[in-house]
């Protein structure tokens, strides 16, 4: 069964307040990936000049291709110039039919490193964290929790995140939470994102999805500066120009939208950002592969403002 992003988020809102969701489970049927040539990037995060020279791709961007041809999809990603990937847990697991070591060995052949993975933290987290740690993945990331009814609901999430952070630390890996727009929308007298960041302990770090910060009506730079050193990964995802904030399906090819990435990513680097990961969910007048390549080309030439 294949779910749309809208269906996934709607279903998420119907489940319990303490439930944490993984990215969508897909069994797609597009044709297998064809090889294309692209120049590779280096392994450093930033150069002295301030431009990114290492960046990653959230594999959910290629969710309609990956299940049918994991190896071909990974090869295409490497050929585009990505050196890092962020995985997600689908119906074939985190390693898409391979063992953890087989996945790592193949990624090593391609010059790819899986720096993080979106996982369901409610099921077998200790086992997943150990598997990820065994192949050198830095972060297990909770991708979604859904809006909570009020402060009490968010306090439950704080406690859940602290427990997940402890589990991951014991396995030798870090834990992070990936935001959506709802954590920037005031409820019960609190801004949930601030509530989380003020109350979770040092085992919990954060992945800033820049698109969702903007969609939530907030300024990414303000939040980066407010919590230096807590945002360790980011989703570099653009938003259609002039799209209203209530439009949650306004993802567009990187560099074609309204978000000022040279400004934001400069501050991110100054405040301790480790990983810059492209994600795209909509492909108007494009395809997932074309959009992923366009994003890689944009990030190769991006210069901090």
Automatic annotation (TrEMBL):
Molecular-function GO term, any one: myo-inosose-2 dehydratase activity
Keyword set includes Transit peptide: no
UniProt key word Hydrolase: no
PROSITE patterns: TAT
All residue ranges annotated as the Xylose isomerase-like TIM barrel domain in the record: 75-301
Superkingdom field: Bacteria
Protein name per the record: Inosose dehydratase
Lineage: Bacteria, Pseudomonadati, Bacteroidota, Saprospiria, Saprospirales
């Amino acid at each position: 069964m294949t779910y749309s992003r809208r269906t996934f988020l709607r279903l998420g809102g119907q489940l319990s307040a303490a439930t944490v969701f993984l990215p969508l489970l897909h069994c797609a049927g597009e044709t297998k990936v064809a090889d294309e040539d692209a120049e590779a990037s280096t392994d450093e995060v930033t150069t002295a000049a301030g431009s990114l020279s290492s960046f990653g791709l959230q594999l959910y961007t290629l969710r309609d291709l990956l299940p049918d041809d994991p190896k071909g999809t990974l090869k295409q990603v490497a050929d585009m110039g990505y050196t890092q990937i962020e995985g997600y847990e689908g119906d074939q697991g985190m390693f898409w039919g391979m063992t953890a070591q087989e996945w790592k060995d193949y990624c090593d052949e391609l010059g790819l490193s899986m720096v993080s993975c979106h996982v369901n933290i409610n099921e077998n987290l200790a086992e997943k964290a150990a598997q990820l740690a065994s192949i050198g993945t830095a972060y297990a990331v909770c991708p979604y929790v859904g809006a909570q009814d009020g402060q009490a609901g968010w306090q439950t999430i704080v406690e859940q995140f602290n427990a997940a952070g402890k589990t991951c630390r014991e396995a030798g890996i870090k834990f992070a939470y990936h935001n959506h727009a709802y954590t920037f929308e005031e409820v019960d007298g609190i801004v949930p994102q601030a509530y989380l960041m003020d109350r979770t302990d040092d085992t919990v770090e954060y992945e800033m999805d820049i698109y969702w910060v903007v969609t939530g009506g907030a300024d990414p730079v303000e939040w980066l500066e407010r919590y230096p050193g807590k945002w360790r990964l980011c989703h570099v995802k653009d938003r259609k120009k002039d799209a209203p904030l209530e439009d949650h399906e306004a993802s567009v090819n990187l560099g074609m939208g309204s978000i000022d990435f040279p400004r934001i990513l400069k501050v991110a680097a100054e405040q301790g950002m480790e990983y810059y990961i492209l994600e795209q969910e909509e492909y108007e007048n494009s395809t997932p592969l074309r959009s992923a390549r366009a994003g890689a080309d944009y990030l190769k030439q991006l210069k901090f403002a």
